[in-house]
Amino acid sequence: MFAYYIDHFSPFILGPWHGIGIRWYGTAYVLAFLLGIWMLRAFARHGYSELPEEKITDFIAATAFFGVLLGGRIGYVLFYNLKETLADPLQFFRVWEGGMASHGGILGIALFTYWYARRHKVSWLGLGDNLVVAAPLGIFFGRCANFINGELFGRPTTVPWAMQFPKELYDVPALAQRAVEACSALDPALSNRDVIVEASQTSAPVREVLAGILTPRHPSQLYEAGLEGLLLFALLWFIRTRTRVAEGVTTGAFFVLYALVRIFGEQFREPDLGIARFQVLSWDVTRGQFLSLFMILFGLALIGISVRRNRPAPRPARETPAA
Known about the structure:
59% of the residues lie in helices and 6% in strands.
C-alpha cells in the first residue's frame, strides 16, 4: 500500500520554552512585513510611487497593524467565529490560538489605505496599485505557515501526493476516539487528542498508528500558496511593470484574480467545520468562495471606473511606451 506522508512539523522555529517560542506563523507575518517594505521602497525609488520612499516604512507598518492584523482578526470573528466570540469576548485577543481571515485582511487594508490616502492627500488607487503587487507574497508565507501548522487542510483524496494531518482529530470525533484507543495502548499518557497531536510531531510510533487512522487529503495549503501567492504575484507584477494600464486597474485586477484563484483553490480545501455553505445558481459554495464573488464584482467595477478616468499610473520617467 502507498504510504502517505504525515504532516508532523513543529509550529515552532525555536522552542518552545514553557509553551513560549518563535512560531512559523508569526515569522510569516514578519517576513511579509519586511518584504513589503523592500518592494514598495523599490517601487518608490524607481518612480512607480506617488508616496515618497522615506514614508514607506511607516505606511507599511500601519497597514500591517490596522489592515492585516486588525482587519484579519475582525473578519475571522464576523465571517467564521461570531457565535463563539460573543460567548467569550476575550477570545478576540487570544491571537496566539490562531484565527485570521484573508478576506477580512483585504477589506481592512482597503479601508485603512483609503483613510491614509485622504489624510496624506495621495491617490488611494495609486497606493493600491503597488501594495497589491506585494500582498500575494505575504499570502504565500501565510499559506506555507498554515501547511507547517497542519491546519486548513484539504479534502479527502487518493492522489499520490496526498498527506495526512493529525489535526483532523479535532474535526472528526470518531477518528479521535480511534486514535485515543490505539495510542493509549502504546503509552497510557496518550489519553486525549491534544496529547496525541503534539506527540505526532516527535514520535514515529505514534505516526505509524495515525497512518492507519487519518484520512489522506490534498495539501491544499500548498496549492493556495502557489495560486494565491506565487501565481498572483507574477501576474500583478507583469501588469504593474510591463503594461501601461490606467491607475487603479492593477488594484482591480488583484480583487478579480485573487477571487478567481481562491474560488478554484477551495475546490480542494476542506470546508470550515460548522460553517454553513451557500447555494449560488445551484452551486454549493463555501464561505470563502461566497465572499470571493463580491470581490469579483468590486474588482470589475474598479477596473471600469479606472479605465473611464484614464489617469496614468506613476511609472519611471525614463521608461518608453510599450510598442
